[in-house]
C-alpha cells in the first residue's frame, strides 16, 4: 500500500482530450467580461467533476492491482502522477476564476452606485452640446435683443476639476518650503568695535579733563604743570531673551519646523539687539544706545539753500572738529533715496560729484541705510572709536520639556537668549541730528 501516496486526482490525457477548447487560452487572456468568466468557470467546474470520476476509477484500479500483485504497474503509476498534477492545476484555475468573478461583480456594483449618484445630482450632470447651447444665457440675451448681429456661444465640455468631472482624481502638490515673513537686514553691530567679557559688568577709566599747559621754557625756570582727570565708567551686561511653545507632534510631523523656529528666535534676538544698540534709553534693563549718548548736531555755519547733503557734511565736520574723523553715516532708506534722487539745476543727478558707485557712500563715507533709523533723522561720526560691544554669551537656543506642565501636555519650550553690554566711551564722536524741512 506504499503507493497510495501517488493517489491520482486528474487525468492529463483525459483533460487534453475532453476539456472544452480554449479554457487555458481564455485564462491567460484574463477575460474581463463577467458573462464570459461565468461560462468559463462553468466549463472548468464541469470538466473537474468529470475528471474526478476518472480519479475515483483510477484509485479503485490502483487498490485492486495493489491487492492482487502487491505493487502498481509503471503505466498506472504514470497515469496516477499525471492525474495528481493536472487536477491541482484545474482546481487552481477554478479558484482563480471564482475570485475574478467576485471582483468583477464588486466592480460593477460600485460603478452602478456611481452612475446612480451622478443621476441624482441633477444640475451637476454632463450636458450635450445642444443642451449647453439651448440653455446658454448668451443665447437668451441674443433672442431678447431681437437677434441683431451675431452671437458667440462658448461651450465648456472639457474635463475640469469641477464635481462630476475629473475632480476626484486631481491631487494637489505640497511644497516642503516654509514661506516666512521678510527679515530686516541688521547692520548697526558691524559699525562698532567688537569685544567680549566673562563678567556681568564692564568698567573702564574715562578722561573727563585735559588741562594741557605744555609750553616753551627757559633754562632754570620752573616748567608749567598740566592737569588730567579720569573718572570711572561702567556698562552693565544685559540679557535679551524670548521663548515659544511647540507641541511634540508638530516637531515630529514637520521636521523642518525646528530649523525655522531656531532661525526665528535668533532673528528676534538680533532685531531687539539692533533696536537697543541704536535707541536704547539706558533705563531699567535697557542698554544706553548710540543715539541716546550721541552729541546733538549744531550747525557750524549757514548755507544758502541748505539741503540734506549739506547738513550731513556739516555733521561730519562737527565730528572732525571734535577730533574724531567720521567713518560712517546712518540713515533711513527713505532719506537715502531722497538724497540719491537729488539733481542739479539742469536736472542731472549728482552721482558724479559726491557719490561713489563702489557702494552707498556720501562725502567719501559709507552710508548704512536701515529701517532701524527714524525717518528725517541722521547719525554720523566715528563709530568704532565711539563704542565697543561686549558679548558675554552668544546666541543660545535650547529646547526642554521640563517647563510647567509641558510633560503632561506633550509640549516643548524653546528659548532663545543672548547677553551683551555696550560701552559708549566717546560720545563726542557721534553726531545726531534732524533734517527738519530741508530738501533732498
Tell me what you see in this structure.
The chain has 440 residues and is α/β, with parallel strands linked by helices. It has 2 domains: 120 residues, no CATH class; 203 residues, hypothetical protein PF0899 domain (hypothetical protein PF0899 fold, 2-Layer Sandwich), CATH 3.30.2320. Helices cover 41% and strands 20% of the residues. The strands form 3 sheets. Strands 5-12-9-6-8-7 form a 6-stranded mixed β-sheet. A hairpin with a 2-residue loop joins β7 and β8. The longest helix is centred in the first third of the chain and has 48 residues. The protein is elongated and about 160 Å long. The termini are far apart. The N terminus is likely disordered.
Structural class: alpha/beta
Domains, number? 2
Determine the strand fraction and express it as a percent band.
15-25%
Largest sheet: 6 strands, mixed
Radius of gyration: 47 Å
CATH T-level fold name of the largest domain: hypothetical protein PF0899 fold
The CATH architecture designation of the largest domain is 2-Layer Sandwich
Helical stretch tally: 14
Euclidean distance between termini CA atoms: 118 Å
Annotated CATH homologous superfamily of the largest domain: hypothetical protein PF0899 domain
General shape: elongated
Helix and strand string, N-terminal first?
Answer: HHHHHHEEEEHHHEHEHHEEEHEHEE
Strand order of the largest sheet: 5-12-9-6-8-7
Helix content: 40-55%
**CATH class category name of the largest domain:** Alpha Beta
Number of strands: 12
As residue ranges, the low-confidence spans are 1-30
Overall pLDDT score: 80
